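Dissemination and training. As part of the outreach component of the grant, students in the summer workshop were shown how a complex can be specified as a set of sequence lines and then modelled as a single object. The example used during the hands-on session is reproduced here so that future cohorts can follow it. Participants entered these lines:
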Amino acid sequence: MSHKEARLLIGGDPGSVSPELAEHLANCPECTKFQREMIALDANIRRALQHPPAGAALAEEALTTPAAAAGAPGETSDADVVASVTASAAPIASAIGGPPAAVAPVTPPSAKVIPITGARGRQHKRTSSWPGWALAASILVGAFATLAIWTLHPTDTLAHDVVAHIEHEPKSWASSQPVSPAALNEILRKAGVTLDANSDKVMYARSCRFRGHEVPHLVVSTSRGPVTVLVLRFESVKARESFHEDGMTGVITPAPHGSIAVLAQGNENVDEVAEQVQQSVRWLPESH
Amino acid sequence: MRGVRNSGPETPVSSFDGSTVGAEPGDPIIRLFATMRPDLLRFAHWLARDRAIAEDIVQETLLRAWRARDALKDQTAARAWLLTIVRREHARLYERKRLELVPLEDGIEHEGMPSPPGPDSELDSLRGAILKLPLEYREPLIMQVLGGFSTAEIAQELSLSSTAVLTRLFRARNKLRTMYGLTPAPDDSASEGAL
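and obtained this result:
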């Protein structure tokens, strides 16, 4: 594969790495750098597109209920549900009982602001005080959004550290030669685990320093592309945590000892792989 | 544009006064459509770059989807199905209405497209850059990133080869790279089919 072909594939779909591309990347630092830049850019594009171009206005309208704004929640009938599909966006949200949480992840602050303004100024909403309320709402929206973004930004989270670690080893994704069983077992043994799985699917295995401990960093070849696995014996999580950051989709699941992080590039669903990894990892009680 | 409707009031779903015609109240598919409406609006808005047009497109999309609901065998595929209708409706709208085009900068400035709440001006700049992409580049990018369509699916939908789609996506991202101060990758393909 030529550089030109590699860059076309990367630019066309940064999150997708075919075996041929992986082979090229393994020997081409320039294209690897280009891929890393494009994955980062793609993550930003994805974030940018989550807002409609008109920003809060559209999202707010889609999520706001006119019934609530009019102070008459719960009066929407099933017939209105049907009608709402062809009417404006607002009654739909009302009819289905509010915004679906997964639809507009950064807009809940807007939705929270509406009742506040409505409770205090509902009677005046369409009178001359509208510009004032609009300004106040805008400020509150901004404040809530800033707070939400600041609060939810995964800077200090385990997921963020996992992503940052993987970004420091971009070539790991491109490995195409299976790791020898002996080398793999040695790395796993250091972490006190074994793997009940076909080792010829493991294309990359390193013992990496992560948060002060040595952890196995594996890349497993799957039918959907390479998947990175970090066995985090010393990092406990209370519940399963899914995340999407910097062009990677991942999940961290609780394990009998610590946790396991499984990540893929792009939007690939890793739940199935994470489940398989959970079942394949055997924790050695005598270690660590 | 808000008043533009592409269907007459003889729709099987409802009339615009809200009275139900031909639909079962509480029909699961109505609720399914309703939950997806914000996604459809966002998708249509990025395609059309105009909120009112996007609303019209989505309305028409839902009407068409309702009429063709029997074709939806697998409800898990509803999102992709509806997004495809949105894209076609967007294309059809422009074919039929021959809308008067306004220079993008004018449109953005005059409509005062507000920035989404949040401190990230970099994302705002990126949004502006995406909006300025020609439709031939913006459309496959939105289909891929926002719609989750594969290259093959985009190629089929746009009646292009997969290589042509990859080229358009490559060029779209390449244009966006420049706003990050990154050097655009060489684009020496003479045509979209060149590899």
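Chain A touches chain B through 65 residues (CB under 8 Å). Students were then asked to discuss how this feature might be tested experimentally.
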